[in-house]
Amino acid sequence: xxxxxxxxxxxxxxxxxxSADEKANVCACGSPLLVSYDYAGIKAQLTKETLVxxxxxxxxxxxxxxxxxxxxxTSFGEGMTPLIEMKNLSEEYGIKTVWMKDxxxxxxxxxxxxxxxxxxxxxxxxNIKEIAMPTNGNAGAAWALYAVKAGIKSHIVMxxxxxxxxxxxxxxxxxxxxxxxxxISDAGKIVARSVKENGWFDVSTLKExxxxxxKKTMGLEIAEQLDWELPDVIVYxxxxxxxxxxxxxxxxxxxxxxxxxxxxxxxxxxxxxxGCAPIVKAFNEGKxxxxxxxxxxxxxxxxxxxxxxxxxxxxxxxxxxxxxxxAVDDDTILSEQQLIAQKEGAFICPEGAATFAAIRKLRExxxxxxxxxxxxxxxxxxxxxxxxxxxxxxxxxxxxxxx
Amino acid sequence: xxxxxxxxxxxxxxxxxxSADEKANVCACGSPLLVSYDYAGIKAQLTKETLVxxxxxxxxxxxxxxxxxxxxxTSFGEGMTPLIEMKNLSEEYGIKTVWMKDxxxxxxxxxxxxxxxxxxxxxxxxNIKEIAMPTNGNAGAAWALYAVKAGIKSHIVMxxxxxxxxxxxxxxxxxxxxxxxxxISDAGKIVARSVKENGWFDVSTLKExxxxxxKKTMGLEIAEQLDWELPDVIVYxxxxxxxxxxxxxxxxxxxxxxxxxxxxxxxxxxxxxxGCAPIVKAFNEGKxxxxxxxxxxxxxxxxxxxxxxxxxxxxxxxxxxxxxxxAVDDDTILSEQQLIAQKEGAFICPEGAATFAAIRKLRExxxxxxxxxxxxxxxxxxxxxxxxxxxxxxxxxxxxxxx
Lengths: 403, 403
Known about the structure:
six-stranded mixed sheet; Rossmann fold; homodimer; 37% helix
């Protein structure tokens, strides 16, 4: 019984292949690398009936993950996050079924934990001792804390404006933390320079192949949680876009395994903020790559990514599934965040709120039909962004009552 | 197939019984009420084999929960939180096995979600329209947000010094939020007065019988996650003590069902802060009830409870299981919090850190033996307490590198 059926890495641009047993960053051509598996081998070993008895974390899909030796799995029980039916939002939006996949219920309170769980575990397997990365906050927190458990030293560079709590998460982990007065691209350049000089392993978004594998488990879980009947639409807040690429890859792999129907791909939607919408611009212009977005700005900090290395993979996922890309403005994001708390009792992050604001807009425009089923990804807990919420409240005397 | 096998409520002090189909607060004698079930009925319907196929949330134990009609279940997928082996802490403490039950991975990031999930669902079943409660923060946030989903209006009174993020959670839910310049007992008095004047339902700790039922699922999960082999010791940070009472009740019920061995009860440990340790004082004096703790103060805000209504139940659980009660000081709590982040990659709350500091002390004193297995409850995410952590980091220029 193999723990993993990983076979090799391949380049989606030039089709070059690489070993999954050696350290790899990007292809010689500069493209991110993707992971391939022995799908026939998986088919022969893994059944849906086996799966149901496994622990409710993302390692239940270990045959479809790149870690070969179970001993290298570095886990805080991440995965199998709830898929919650949002009946009040369904009514509000006029859509038959609206689910929220709640990625707040995971180590560090952000979906970034999935990428770091698999990425750090594989780094441990490849005997990597020091990693470095730029981050908008949540990814840095997740990688720094997972790295501790794996015995790996990490170096994190973060914009000054990133959510303060993520800075504290990195700090308490004991990682080397640096700040830059700029955006994530500036942090990325510092990291690129530093890994060369120090011989650290660069784990920037899509500069290592395994983060996608962690993120793809969102797609695997969605399929399993819906008893292998996929929804009509999946909506995802898009910065680096790894989650969308991962969900697309997951569904293709499930089709390859024959676990979901081949004829019906959910339409994938990339949501961005109006202050940083390079993927949306490229989509609207029918292009297959995006351009650097100047002076990007949004309160949904996690999706402030002016140019994603995997932009062409995000756009491919959108085009191939008849999906779309859509931008929402910051005021709309914050009012949707409040509405969801007051209608559904869920305090979600601004990026997640952007997702639901987009679902509302897409229903209004008719792109989503009233009879359809839609999943919105909430990528993290609202409590990581306290500055988006006020807290006015009257003071009561100890001898008083309230009415 | 009954969804619930709830039979009635009973008073653990005077043995009076009450219906579980009508609103109930405390017994006429003033004691909290406990929930009883038809255990023979459960035995006949529910098997461990059935359980394994159910969704990974606390409602998998619905036969052992008080909600009769599934339609009233108000859920965000809470429960089946990870039980994580802490190998580095085992080594650090010199204890064979140390697990952390991580209650941060739940709606609102705090174990309070369990009590509110079941309490709010049952309130909905009983047709309750408005609830009121005092809170140290996390419980208020959880009850306010669950109440939204159930269509119940809530009134929350919170000390001024409670964690700011919990104030924001209550605020964004649209609940009526009030602050008091005092401790939770002061908030409790305001609520007691207000429920009388307004006809609201009082859901203060142990003033309604169903919160314990939610909390007891921690005990059910621990047993299931360890394949029905209980650990030697379970350590729990104790404010109101509902979790400890719940875990004790859970294990007794599992013994009644014959799902765990009757001869070996885990020793239950109540951990308090030195600045607020009424249960510890009572335990040290061999008493069965605690006294009000004057001028209580601790950075582990959730366990700042000067006098718990269920103190006698907490002490009973300790005495009956040959457990103990122990206090740790605030400096030790904060240094243990940091150590756990840097040894295990887990950023836990101060209350959770108190738990692990207590495990260390109990091993040092020999009360826990080196060959034993110990579970520590981390009751919430560290990110809810940003003020406990610094975030110093150097600024790097955009054209620089780091070393």
